[in-house]
Design goal:
Length: 502
Amino acid sequence: MTNSVFEAQWDVIIVGSGAGGGVVAAELANQGARVLVIERGAWIPPDEIDQDELAMIARLYRDGGAQTNTDADMFVLQGSCVGGSTVLTNAVCFRMPEDVRRRFEDYGWRLTSEELSACSAYVEEAMHVCELDPRLHNPASHRMAEGMRALGLTPGRFDKAFDRCIGCGYCNVGCGFGRKRDSSTVWIPRALEAGCELRPRTEALRFVHRAGHVDGLVCKDLESGLNFTLRAKRYVLACGALHTPELLLRSGLGGRHVGKRTSFNAGAIVFAEYDEVVDGFDGDQMCVHYFGDGYAIEQIQNPPMSFALTMPGWFDEHHAAMLRYRHRVAAGVLVPTRPVGRVFRGLGSKLLTRWFDHPNLAFQLPTEDIESFRRGFEMIARIFLASGARVVVPPLATYTEIRSENDLGLIAERLHTQRDLVGFGSSHPQGGACMGDDPSRDVVAPNYRVYDTNCVHVCDASLFPESVRVNPMISIMAVAKHAASIIGSLVDRNQASAVHVC
Ligand SMILES: Cc1cc2nc3c(=O)[nH]c(=O)nc-3n(C[C@H](O)[C@H](O)[C@H](O)COP(=O)(O)OP(=O)(O)OC[C@H]3O[C@@H](n4cnc5c(N)ncnc54)[C@H](O)[C@@H]3O)c2cc1C
Ligand code: SF4
């Protein structure tokens, strides 16, 4: 291998360009720090995005959308592109609930209610967050709202990070119209304007260090296959939950709690069919929601491929149901799980370090979370029936049709473990490098520094000691804004730094 060496001066290297990495990059660059962002995925601008679900999922998602837990009964969706998972969102925006912030304070987080409000307002303004225009609501959402009202519930509307959205309904494969606000359209451009450098298609492999004193970050250029080492004064890991813990594990950093306390907003989709044509796909995918006891119901009207992938039923039954696509509607039940997941390096990963770059994830829903799913499925079935649905199909491995309230008991009868679910997964992994004030329990100190290192920080969803309960993007961005002010104050701009390619 040819060795080439070049020198550059960076104050901070940020790994990952999603919700956490994008905000920290923009903020630190605007504070005058010399910043480099390295990102595993490619930069895929709107003019390269179309509505071919298969092709776009393969390009934009980690492992082409096929990332699962070790039992292979749960998928975990994450982005692998400049902008990270934010490129794939439905742009749903919720602030971190105050009771969640207080729970995090119990772990030692130093984020006051006032600071969180100010940081949330700041990121919301940049992301153009406002209520979804009712003209973009899809026809299925009107049915769901009717059903909720019939049961005396109030349908919640979503705030979204859109910019003149036309409601095409393909948000989960990126926005080919450039109308979604995400890290690749908001924070990374701000960072670049302020002088930050970006290196896409570059993967961080591991830190070189002596007892936590970091001497460089070994990276791989995914185009050429060449490895090289980068050096900076400080490093910020923003690879997302699963991959930030994995990088720490690979590097032998973070102590014995790395990878532990992984949590999710995990979900599965309930389908319903009406006699008449609904054309639920005709508008934005997610327009109505409802928060219940231990669960949230969020409408999700997917385009055909994703619709088919998550819909229960096999072979002819499944085929016949897909032919009724124009009559079918769907809604997800999301449960903020307990933090019982664990990211670890399996034997394959340890023995075949050069070829395996995948974290292993152990996760099974605890009984309490299964109960939340049962309650959520029953509630959405009631909502659909109240709005005139002919049949409701919950996501159970034993194919189940609910045609009246009398059938609701089937849900509890057939749902006992995660294995009993179909299309079960999460787009909101959290935890694994949890922040708190107890080094014997936590991985990251309240100043965002990994306890057993001198200069490695974490700033992404893996900091959360418990599930944040709502769709997490705005919470992560607000925390990243807070983190940037602390990390920025630690950067000594007079100290030299260098990069070596070798
Ligand atoms: C399909 C989908 C829909 C969603 N919808 C919503 C929504 O509507 N509202 C909401 O609030 N949230 C939503 N989310 C969740 C939200 O996008 C994520 O919670 C958030 O983006 C996570 O931020 P993060 O910084 O932790 O990680 P990410 O945004 O995932 O960024 C991590 C980045 O690090 C890169 N990376 C990983 N490992 C390495 C490495 N070793 N070297 C270099 N780079 C690396 C990845 O490629 C990725 O770009 C959705 C997620 C998905 C997948
Ligand atoms: S619904 Fe709006 S934001 Fe989403 S992909 Fe279509 S135009 Fe873009």
